[in-house]
Amino acid sequence: MNEQHEEICEWLELYALKGLSEMENKQFETHLVECPACREKLIELENMTDLLPLASEQIDVPVGMKERVLGHVLNSGNPAQDSRMVSPPYNKPAISRRFFMNGLSAAAVILLVISSFLYVDNRNLEQELAEREELVDRLQLALSDMTGPVEEPIQPTVIVTLNPEAEDIVSKGLASIVIDQRGTHLLVMAEDLPELEGEQAFQVWLLDEGTPRNAGTFLAHQGTGAFYYTIESDRYDRVVITVEPDAHGSMPRGYAILSAKI
Amino acid sequence: MQLEYSDLDLMKRIIGKDASALELLYSRYERVMYSFAYRIVKDAMAAEEVVQELFMRIWKSAERYDLREGKISTWLFAITRNIAIDVLRKQKSRMPVPPANEEKLQLVIAENADTEEMVELQWMGEQVRSALDKLNEEQQEVIELIYYQGYTHQDVSNIQSIPLGTVKSRVRLALHHLRAKLPNLGKEGISG
Questions:
Q1: Beta-carbon pairs below 8 A across chains A and B
Q2: B interface mutation test: which of A8, A41, A76, A86 has the most B CBs within 10 A?
Q3: Sorting pLDDT into bands at 50, 70 and 90, what band is B149?
Q4: b/e burial code for range B27-60 (CB count within 10 A of at least 16 → b)
């Protein structure tokens, strides 16, 4: 047994207590393969050093630690190889190094895949953000059109009196045509309107050479009602208000109460 | 009737990604591993992080534990020590940390020792503490610096300004005295 061999044998206790440097550890593990005496003594010594953690005084764990730790661990995603596990046993250094390198390679691949997903995800988010910003701009523009102050004073181009369609009808009203930047609008105001029953509703019709077009329905408050409608065509020649059995008809089913030529 | 799973049973289930098994193993070792981590890092938050990293590694790499060899508790202690020493080494100014202030250590009754294994571990812990206390100061110091603070024998030689051979002989004497004071424990090791 040469001098160097004996010298390394003296590292036995330091190795068992984990007091050697990384390089010395490797040297000693190589030595263990060829030194049965050290292997035998090491088993006894490690049985002893394995007890050292137990010498720690038992202390209370922080409140909520279990929930925090397990919550973090179980929500940590897919399992991945971790190269920092406990040091390899002395007789398997080559295997462990290979495992370590494989672990590194796997980690690199996983990182690459995650990075790719993050890149694609980021691009998608950027695109979505741009679309949302464009939508917000459009909505803000539309909102400003709807709520912005009217720059020009409104002047009705046509004002007609709505006349009763029958002698016993006391209702009266006005129909106005207003043209502004946003289009042509029909404004109808009526009073002394008959009291409605059930699902009845007042309905406004625009006539184009006798063909009615539904402009919409309205209800009255204490006999008075008002109505607003944007006209997309100027071909209409008459406006008629009817009492309808409900507000859902597309053609007149009830009876006319007021009308005017426009 | 509540089944008492062995550590080995739990490890097999954890390899199969059984979260309830991980929780059982955690409950069994939470206090022991936390106390050991605290013994090394001497900071409650850092000790919790060590335990978290420990169980992260168990959950993600339990299959790396060879079910045919070694005690699971030994394996867990070894990983805990590696993580905790890493934490110490990452600290910028690496100075020897004095042993934890006894006043800060809140001794607890073995209320969580609901398994035979835990009762055994705690009993063994008392024996080991008692044996360590009986070592002389120099021997206690080398064990503290090397095992609990992660220094190499070269570091200890530098820190204490003593020859490498002196460090080696103190370690050898310390371990041999421990063996003499704990003959049965040393032979059987930690169960699990």
A1: 182
A2: A86
A3: very high
A4: ebbbbbbbbbbbbbbbebebbbbbbbbbbbbbbb
Between CA B124 and CA A72 the distance in angstroms is: 32
Confidence of residue A146 (pLDDT cuts 50, 70, 90): low
Of A66, A70, A85, the CB nearest to B57: A85
Q: Which residues contact B122 (CB under 8 A, 6 or more apart)?
A: A58, B110, B113
Contact B147 A17 (CB under 8 A): yes
DSSP code string of B144-170: IIIIIT---HHHHHHHHT--HHHHHHH
Per-residue pLDDT tens digits for A207-217: 888 888 888 88
Of A98, A86, A89, A85, nearest to A32 by C-alpha is A89
The answer to whether residues A224 and A193 touch, using CB atoms and an 8 Å cutoff, is yes
Neighbours of A257 (CB within 10 A): 22
Q: What distance in Å separates the CA atoms of residue B20 and residue A115, rounded to the nearest whole number?
A: 32
User: How close does chain A come to B1, measured CA to CA in Å?
Assistant: 25
CA distance B23 to B29: 10
End-to-end CA distance of chain A: 124
Q: What is the pLDDT of residues A86-115, one digit of tens each?
A: 433 333 333 333 334 444 445 554 455 445
Contact between chains at A53 and B52 (C-beta distance less than 8 A): no
DSSP state of B107: B
pLDDT digits (tens, 9 = 90+) for A224-238: 888 888 887 767 888
Q: Which contacts of A147-151 are long-range, i.e. CB under 8 A and separated by 24 or more positions?
A: A150/A180, A151/A181
- Find the closest chain A residue to B125 by CA distance: A54
Q: Which two tokens stand for residue A146?
A: 């709807």
b or e along B2-23 (b: 16 or more beta carbons within 10 Å of the residue's beta carbon)?
eeebebeebbbbbbeeeeebbb
Please tell me what DSSP assigns to residue A59.
Answer: B
How many CA atoms lie within 13 Å of A227's alpha carbon, on the beta-carbon side?
30
- Looking at CA atoms only, how far is residue A72 from chain B in angstroms? 8
B17 with A79: Cβ contact below 8 A? yes
